[in-house]
Amino acid sequence: MIQLSDVWYRAGRDQILSGVNLHVDPGEFVCIVGPSGAGKSTLLRLIHMEIFPTRGKILVADYDAEEIKAKEIPYFRRKVGIVFQDFKLLEDRDVFENVAFALWATGIRRRQIKKRVFQVLAETGLSHKRYSMINELSGGEQQRVAIARALVNEPFVLLADEPTGNLDSEATYEILDLLRKINRKGTAILMATHKEELVNTLPVKVVKINKGKIIE
Amino acid sequence: MSLNLLYSLREGIIGLRRARVATFVTVSTIAVTLALFGIFLVLTVNVQRIVGLFRERMALEVFIDNSLNSEQIKKLGERLSSLSSVRKVTFVSKDEALRRFKKEFGEDPLTFLGENPLPSSFEIKVQQVAQTPQGVERLAKRIENIKGVEEVVYHGKLFRVVDRYSRIIIFADIFLSIVVLLAAILLVANTLRLTILSQRNTIQIMQLVGATKSFIKRPYIIQGVLQGGIGGVVGSIIVWVLIRVVALRFPHLLEASFLLVSSPFLLGTVLGFLGSGIGVKRFLQT
After folding, report:
1. One domain for residues B22 and B82
2. How far is B176 from chain A (nearest CA, A)?
3. Which pTM was predicted?
4. Of A114, B86, B189, B211, whose Cβ has the fewest other Cβ atoms within 10 Å?
5. Which SS3 state, helix, strand or coil, does residue A193 take?
6. CA distance A201 to chain B (A)
7. Does B17 touch chain A (CB under 8 A)?
8. Number of domains in chain B
9. What are the pLDDT tens digits along chain A (216 aa)?
10. Which of chain A's residues have a Cβ under 8 Å away from the Cβ of B215?
11. Is residue B101 located within the same domain as residue B197?
12. Residue B205 burial (CB < 10 Å; 0-12/13-18/19+)?
């Protein structure tokens, strides 16, 4: 489903990725582990098609990074959810609107939006917070909102870039639990983290990366 | 589609409300700018109109040699009518000239001269293409050379002055209008750019969740059109009020059609659209 073959990426003079191969099957949970600057985020951004490889092939579902057109990217993004360390939420809107935001853009009917948002808020344990403003929430709750927003379009894969980087240990495990729950329902997950001890406790496929190369 | 548009409209209005101060400043500046433009336009149109009226009435008086008999006068009239820049030739007989003289000066020359000293003449209206100082002068020269013509009289100097000043006014108007228009476009574009910059985050998130480019742009375009349109309406109102105020003192000086008065509104909407288009395009490319 996700297939990277001999992917190289260079930004200016810096060689960020060198000959990366990666494969993620549908419904799989894969963790990319490596120190800061190893190229984890770059890898996720390549898969999300924010940037494109200098060399090599990237296939995500039916989309080929070499052939995708600029105007197809929004439609591609709707099938690939993404969350970040810093959540990237809209501070001036409440939880419901933050999640609904991702659906507005697709032009679905209002009633369907409401139904779908309530459903995904229930799945992520946020039903009781639906009308809270973002700054009233804890870090863990904010990341749940981000995850809910990423899931609301029912993507086949969820990309998570250091999703627990800003969270305390309790919230970290809650988020990991949530990700596993989502994964059990069939959504593939590709998570990047620098905390190796975190993923060792999880029954997931681990890919180690350092200095732009897959080492294990 | 309609839902999307509704969403964009709502977002556009929310955006304007959020940046209340900036919106107020932009809208009022646009209003003043477009009011200026409207005033220039009204002035230009009216200067044109008044100069046109003046030109229309511009006439050459061709005095006829007293020795010509009626047959020769008739021939001279035909000759004048056949000239290319002549629109209309009216014969003014000695009696008619006398009547006009009496009406104008309130005195009868017959009482102190005993005879009618006024020559008969032809009054010549000029065709529109020749209604320039040079054109009239050329025509006058040609007529002077025709046999049987005593003298040609016209207000050449006055005509030249009016022509020169009207031209200066119109050029100044056009120049100022262009400046004002560019200023309005830049203003909208810049305000929008600021709005967009302040919402960089939102736009980035929209791109992340798969919003199409046009979906992202639309609220900002709507904001631009609203700003330009509202500013334009205010500008139109200012122009209308000014015209009314001038009309209190000089009732027939200015004429302004509905289209002319609403031009700031129409233009504001178009400029808002263009300005926001430029602003959005610039930002989304970076």
Report:
1. no
2. 42
3. 0.70
4. A114
5. strand
6. 30
7. no
8. 2
9. 899 999 999 998 999 999 999 999 999 999 999 999 899 999 999 999 999 999 999 999 999 999 999 889 999 999 999 999 999 998 888 999 999 989 987 878 888 899 999 999 999 999 999 999 999 999 999 999 999 999 999 999 999 999 999 899 999 999 999 999 999 999 999 999 999 888 888 889 999 999 999 987
10. 74, 105
11. no
12. buried
